[in-house]
């Protein structure tokens, strides 16, 4: 776990910025201790890495949040594309350095350098092409999903008492699932509760298709924040729900 000051020092961003990310639910602390210290785990540090990279590509914060919160966001795929962009940036900088070295040698030797040789390394077209391709792919896959649009529309229509009701129902479902955790996750009683959870999401947030539901189940164990939040209710709940949702998904088609 890292304290907020340690995370700020590692990333080069201010503590105030991390507080702001917490306020807008872009990057929440993994845990807040009784003394108020914010602690961040490795999963949070990885999310911050993605935030900073997407900021480098001029994505606005609200869009970054939407992308990273998408249940189908693939960190490995994103890192592989980001690496290609960074390699292209490195190669471009190396070309510029080489051009500067050649220019220095030409001046020292009293030679004339061709203008094309001087200016060609500054051409950004290939780098811009890589970045544009990545931005388009990210926005296409994560930026404007139907589920997100539905969720935003419903959220804006809710009042404070609506949010309280939704939260009460959510916790009630989780408590019922906790009560049957001694049963095999494939048992009918468990699967009925998993179906109730899916219908809760559809009723209050967005149409939770089988595909989305499967993805959420995977996220409950793959994403440390999901995992920790669920396991705070009951240790092992994240793993249990993930397996129950996997079974549910295997038995249902769209």
TrEMBL record:
GO terms for molecular function: DNA binding; DNA-binding transcription factor activity. The keyword Transcription regulation applies. InterPro entries: DNA-bd_dom_put_sf (IPR009061), MerR-type_HTH_dom (IPR000551), MerR_fam (IPR047057), TipA-like_antibiotic-bd (IPR036244), TipAS_dom (IPR012925). Keywords: Activator, DNA-binding, Transcription, Transcription regulation. Residues 1-70 form the HTH merR-type domain. Signal peptide: none annotated. It holds the Pfam family TipAS. PANTHER family: HTH-TYPE TRANSCRIPTIONAL ACTIVATOR MTA, REDOX-CYCLING DRUG-SENSING TRANSCRIPTIONAL ACTIVATOR SOXR. This is MerR family transcriptional regulator.
